[in-house]
Amino acid sequence: MSLTVGVIGGGQLARMMVPAAVELGIEIRVLAESAAASAQIAASAVGDYRSRDDVLRFAEGVDVITFDHEHVPQDVLHALVDSGVAVRPGPDALLYAQDKLLMRDRLSALGLPVPDWASVVSTEELASFIGDHGGRAVVKTPRGGYDGKGVRVVSDADEVADWFVAGEPLLVEELVDFRRELSQVLARRPSGEIALWTVVESVQRDGVCAEVIAPAPGSSSKLVDVAAEVATAVAENLGVTGVLAVELFETTDERLLINELAMRPHNSGHWTIDGAATSQFEQHLRAVLDLPLGSTAMRDPWSVMVNLFGGPIVERYPAALADQPGVKFHAYGKEPRPGRKAGHVTAGGDDLDEVAFRARAAAAFFEE
Amino acid sequence: MSLTVGVIGGGQLARMMVPAAVELGIEIRVLAESAAASAQIAASAVGDYRSRDDVLRFAEGVDVITFDHEHVPQDVLHALVDSGVAVRPGPDALLYAQDKLLMRDRLSALGLPVPDWASVVSTEELASFIGDHGGRAVVKTPRGGYDGKGVRVVSDADEVADWFVAGEPLLVEELVDFRRELSQVLARRPSGEIALWTVVESVQRDGVCAEVIAPAPGSSSKLVDVAAEVATAVAENLGVTGVLAVELFETTDERLLINELAMRPHNSGHWTIDGAATSQFEQHLRAVLDLPLGSTAMRDPWSVMVNLFGGPIVERYPAALADQPGVKFHAYGKEPRPGRKAGHVTAGGDDLDEVAFRARAAAAFFEE
Fold first, then answer.
1. How does pLDDT run across B193-235, given as a tens digit for each residue?
2. Is pTM beyond 0.90 here?
3. Which residues have a Cβ under 8 Å from the Cβ of B48 and sit 6 or more positions away?
4. Mutation choice for B interface testing from A270, A314, A315, A329 by most B CBs within 10 A
5. Whole-complex ipTM
6. B169 with B200, same domain?
7. Do residue A130 and residue A208 come from a single domain?
8. Which of A152, B207, B213, B234 could be B201's S-S partner, Cβ–Cβ 3.0 to 4.6 Å?
């Protein structure tokens, strides 16, 4: 017997599943977008994740299909299920990661804490929402957005007039007065077992995650409990299997509101590779294979992850590695491109200031 | 620019370099013995490490060649060097890992501590050595032995009469009255930088490493210093690059004697994957690429590694992973075969007894 996991999508999330698979002795195969994909070392096929034929052919002989991203169309997901292969997370869960309007609607129906929101189909409806919420709001395209794309903060409905042209409804949300952004990452098995890492603070710049601090500094035990309860409720009610990241706003009046969901390993969990007993990538593989989950204990009291953008990375190792022998360096094997997530660094230790200093000092060698 | 390492040999040591390479963004290619090799995920070619043509073809386009094992013949190694590719460790160092007589001779000439030894070409010479050393001795074939193969403890020279048939000299050594076996693992760059992990205790069963305890319990600071000095002297004088393991006897009269050398990642260093800031596999890649070495600090006060023999491994994960959520499990993707190293488990923590208990409890699920 061997265990074989098929991953649709060859980005850095698939790439970072490879070390965990190799260590555990699990066979990993990737359906990559191109031969130069980040996860190319495990690519068993190059193909289009929107093509039923490509995906069904790729899935032959694997024990379970999982994902580098949430963009596989529902008809392709259902074709996989109909072919008899295990798909984790399944189409009925992924739906809520694919469509932000459905997500907001479902979370509201479950009574989970979300910002005020509405589905709007016209500038008039949007203008009305903006007027009711202090003159500003966040507008999101329900599908296809990531890393700040498909998101605009507006004070006038005309600022997204171009988005209404498509005729599809848009999601509008109140502009939350938040103190900081948090993320609660967990993994859930089909059999129901759930394991949560500590809740972390995610520092965004220009709508993109720049830095993650684990655990979120100065968190009350109540905040920690609520974050865990909310994320657990999402996982259980939406039937998520594998890793789930629940991005949260901590408001200035000490509430937690759900911002976004990701049903896959997530940037806010990269610190777990070096900072936790079980990384989110190992845990994701265990979870989708319905194997018992590993300990989520931290290896150090503090862990700080800083993203590296653009690249090049490896070229700058001689100076960076010499300067920071205790920092862990990660490069995604991508062609350098401005603003692109090209790698990350993680530091761990007993003192947050010192840990953050080391991680940032290491990252500074790779600044664009 | 990218960095590309070519590894000759597709066993578990090459396999365990893959996660480190993927995380660092280093391209790794393996010349594997077969398509079913343990390191198959990184195999760019299947070929014979004794074939100059196979090896030279494999080496095209890589920045450095390194090894899963020490068996590449000297003429092939020199052909690589002559072709202009960096070979680390180089042929002049590997010679001493390939031939135990040359190794003993060189270490003796350097004044490093070794057991009494001799090169013998006849049962008469061997009988004389045995007579001079209390009636027992250890006889070794100079080449090709590993994991207890090519080693016999004898009290009568006729017990290795079959080995003399080949006409080659044999190595005979005193049977050292040792308290325990230790291993000092380090890495050295071509530029000279050296980084040592803590000295560990290696528990052997039937001539094969069964368990490793890091650090070696109850070691005096003098023992720690001497182990580091001896291993550093070996690395520097033999010009080793990459990882070097120096296996040592700690005698009942508190001396350290060099037993064996390995110029590659070594079983006594597997604990570093989970137990040290930088694993021996990451450090080996850094060293052979002449990149700055990483911290060798331990992640926990104690780390215990237990080998898994035979297999199957993955099939027994459901029970084992559920029982030991904090233990790290490693499987080498090999077909089950009695006595074969098929994987290992590592536990870490503050209390040696508890750590050893957990590692052994996890390993017990895989007993043959």
1. 999 999 999 999 988 999 999 999 999 999 999 999 999 999 9
2. yes
3. B33, B54
4. A314
5. 0.96
6. no
7. no
8. B213
